[in-house]
């Protein structure tokens, strides 16, 4: 696919990190998870990894549109699961959008690349049945400390070991991702679809 001007259209990001802003998840993603994923993918990939995290959206930007564009232009989604994740219309829209992409790719031959990589941050017992049926998520519940001081504890070495495996498995997902296509399916939260100002907060 090419732009009208002749430039090739491709993915903007390798990984889209999807997570709830409630509880300890946001600071954990910012202080630890995204940092270690970036570093380990730098060790593994032949090109510089491109990771989208929404706290990097500049202030004043139309962030709902920015989120949607980033999701459509990402090779895979890493979902950080906690109970608030499944109560967030935004998080569910991100997850469902990538699931629909997988389903679209599976039509015809029954095979599709894995495009969603779930992380269990907290309390899988209260996940919805659909999530509980997925057995391939990575368990990181015992490393859910969000403060910067976590990096100075012995437990951080265990966290880094797990993140090495996470990065290796995400790299495998990236290697199997399809070429970018125009018209990937997208699910919009009702608040976003109905708000002309598109300023509804993401939780």
Structure overview:
- This protein has six helices and five strands, in the order βαβαβαβαβαα.
- Helix 1 links the parallel strand 1 (13-19) and strand 2.
- It has 203 residues and is of the alpha/beta class.
- The protein has helices at residues 25-44, 63-72, 89-106, 129-132, 155-176, 190-194, and strands at residues 13-19, 51-52, 74-81, 116-120, 138-139.
- Residues 1-7 and 195-202 have low confidence and may be disordered.
- A five-stranded parallel beta sheet has the order 2-1-3-4-5, sandwiched between helices.
- It is globular.
> In terms of quaternary structure, what is this?
single chain
Tell me how many strands there are. 5
Q: Low-confidence parts lasting 5 or more residues at pLDDT below 50?
A: 1-7, 195-202
Largest sheet: 5 strands, parallel
Main-sheet strand order equals 2-1-3-4-5
Q: What portion of residues belong to β-strands?
A: 5-15%
* Helix-strand sequence: EHEHEHEHEHH
Helix/strand-derived category reads alpha/beta
Number of helices: 6
Mean pLDDT: 85
Kindly state the percentage of residues in helix.
25-40%
Entry summary:
This is Toll/interleukin-1 receptor domain-containing protein. By secondary structure, the protein is an alpha/beta fold.
Write the layout of secondary structure elements.
Layout: E1 13-19, H1 25-44, E2 51-52, H2 63-72, E3 74-81, H3 89-106, E4 116-120, H4 129-132, E5 138-139, H5 155-176, H6 190-194
Parallel strand pairs: 1-2, 1-3, 3-4, 4-5
């Amino acid at each position: 696919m090419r732009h009208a001007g002749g430039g090739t259209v491709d993915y903007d990001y390798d990984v889209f990190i999807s997570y709830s802003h409630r509880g300890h998840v946001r600071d954990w993603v910012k202080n630890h998870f995204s940092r270690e994923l970036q570093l380990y993918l730098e060790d593994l990939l032949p090109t510089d990894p491109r990771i989208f995290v929404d706290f990097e959206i500049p202030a004043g930007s139309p962030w709902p549109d920015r989120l949607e564009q980033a999701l459509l232009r990402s090779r895979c989604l890493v979902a950080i699961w906690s109970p608030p994740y499944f109560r967030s219309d935004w998080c569910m829209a991100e997850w469902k959008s990538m699931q629909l992409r997988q389903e679209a790719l599976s039509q015809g031959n029954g095979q599709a690349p894995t495009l969603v990589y779930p992380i269990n941050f907290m309390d899988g017992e209260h996940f919805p049945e659909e999530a509980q049926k997925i057995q391939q998520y990575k368990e990181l519940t015992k490393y859910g400390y969000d403060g910067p001081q976590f990096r100075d504890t012995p437990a951080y070495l265990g966290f880094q070991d797990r993140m090495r495996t996470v990065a290796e498995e995400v790299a495998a997902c990236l290697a199997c991702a399809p070429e970018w296509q125009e018209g990937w399916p997208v699910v919009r939260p009702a608040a976003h679809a109905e708000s002309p100002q598109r300023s509804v907060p993401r939780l």
